[in-house]
Specification:
heterodimer; A: about 110 residues; 5-stranded mixed beta sheet; about 40% helix; about 30% strand; B: about 140 residues; alpha+beta; 5-stranded antiparallel beta sheet; 3 helices; globular
Chain lengths: ~110, ~140
């Protein structure tokens, strides 16, 4: 699992993930992910277009970071999920509690709305 | 019947996943079915690794895979403490971020990716069978 952290829209953190967000993948990036997301307190977009697999440990990482951001008054938005990853997010009803949009520009629009 | 003995440790997941996919290759399963199998394997293996035994000794379980025309069934056999994952009441779907329950997600994903899930205790073994739709 690879992770690239950048910025979009001037003040929104954008994290682009590549690979499997399974238990080993979530463990490999966990600390760095949390430092780049929850710890910053900034609105954040997680681009899942490079994620080939998502399981419960990956979902927990997303939920815990989204939750912490919320307590700091910021929002986490997911985007770019492929069909099978989207299915897992829906099965876990994550799309009901974390915004899930098509791509980074839609994510930015969601945050600016 | 495909049969593998897998260490009940998180670092055994990736080699097990690769081995399972390799052994299933001759059956020409779709990407969607393979995905369901990988998900079930991960969630059950991680659950066993964390919860099935009380000590820190090395443990393993046996995974047997039965492939039929319309289904693939994964049978997990372990000698851990009695645990019926189906007896746990699944938490309701979260409606808010704050209300999202931390536990139970793994079993929920297994259920949602299976046509049927069965558990039985045989002597001092747990046997969990997860039947996945092949269509």
């Amino acid at each position: 699992m690879n992770m690239e952290v950048g910025e979009i829209g001037g003040k929104v953190t954008c994290v682009r993930l590549q690979g499997r967000l399974d238990a080993p993948g979530a463990e490999a990036i966990g600390l760095r992910f949390t430092a780049s997301v929850a710890a910053t307190g900034r609105d954040t977009v997680i681009d899942l277009s490079g994620v080939t697999f998502l399981a419960s440990m990956g979902i927990r990482l997303l939920i815990s970071n989204a939750r912490t951001l919320q307590t700091k008054g910021a929002t986490l938005v997911l985007c770019g999920a492929g069909e099978l990853v989207q299915e897992v997010l829906e099965q876990a009803a994550i799309d009901q509690i974390i915004p899930l949009v098509r791509d980074e520009s839609h994510a930015l629009a969601h945050l600016e709305a | 019947m495909i049969e593998l003995r897998i260490a009940a440790r998180p670092d055994a997941l990736e080699p097990a996943r690769v081995e399972v996919l390799l052994r299933l290759q001759p059956y020409g399963l779709s990407a969607r079915v393979s995905h369901r199998i990988e998900l079930v394997l991960e969630e059950v293996l991680m659950n066993l690794a964390w919860h099935a035994w009380d000590d820190s000794a090395n443990h393993a379980f046996v995974l047997a895979i039965e492939v039929e025309d319309d289904s693939v069934t994964l049978h997990f056999d372990d000698d851990g403490r009695p645990f019926d994952p189906l007896s746990r009441v699944e938490p309701p779907a979260p409606r808010t971020l704050a209300g999202a329950a931390p536990g139970g997600l793994g079993i929920a994903l297994v259920r949602r990716n299976a046509r049927a899930v069965r558990y039985e205790r045989r002597g001092d073994h747990n046997r969990l069978s997860v039947e996945i739709d092949r269509r």
